[in-house]
Amino acid sequence: MTEIETSVRLDKWLWAARFFKTRAIASHAISGGKVHLDGQRAKASRLVKIDDCYEISRGQDRLQVIVLKLAQRRASATIAQTLYRETQPSIERREREAELRKLAALQRPVRDTRPSKQERRKIHHFTRKT
């Protein structure tokens, strides 16, 4: 991290910034259309530049981040957080969606016990795809 990085592949930077656990997962997410640069799908081999704005989809979250620094190697989480800055609208949207998910979870019925063998067979019979 002491040397100044001039160019880094997108999959390597996403891995170094700890958006994905492995570089292979980062590359797979990019090829699957989960990472966009200015509204356009990006490629894993694309070189990351400072001040690029990426939209990253991870699970149910959509993050919009601006690149502040480049890194080739994965470091601690505190150092990784200095590589990017999440935009304010992205933070607000993510918090709002998390709150909606919590409220939706509270409305779902909760069972006190696991289903019995008979109930489980009914569930399998009902959900089986034939």
Q: How would you describe what is shown here?
A:
There is one protein chain. By secondary structure, the protein is of the alpha+beta class. 39% of the residues lie in helices and 19% in strands. It has a single domain (8-127), classed as Structural Genomics Hypothetical 15.5 Kd Protein In mrcA-pckA Intergenic Region, Chain A, CATH 3.10.290.10. The protein has helices at 10-16, 23-31, 77-80, 88-107, 117-127, and strands at residues 8-9, 35-37, 40-41, 47-48, 53-58, 61-67, 84-86. The strands form two sheets. A five-stranded antiparallel β-sheet has the order 3-2-5-6-7. A two-stranded antiparallel sheet has the order 1-4. Strand 2 and strand 3 form a beta hairpin. Helix 1 crosses helix 2.
Considering the chains and any ligands shown, give keywords for the structure.
single chain; 130 residues; alpha+beta; Structural Genomics Hypothetical 15.5 Kd Protein In mrcA-pckA Intergenic Region, Chain A; 5-stranded antiparallel beta sheet; two-stranded antiparallel sheet; 5 helices; 19% strand; elongated
Task: Please outline the helices and strands.
Blueprint: E1 8-9, H1 10-16, H2 23-31, E2 35-37, E3 40-41, E4 47-48, E5 53-58, E6 61-67, H3 77-80, E7 84-86, H4 88-107, H5 117-127
Antiparallel strand pairs: 1-4, 2-3, 2-5, 5-6, 6-7
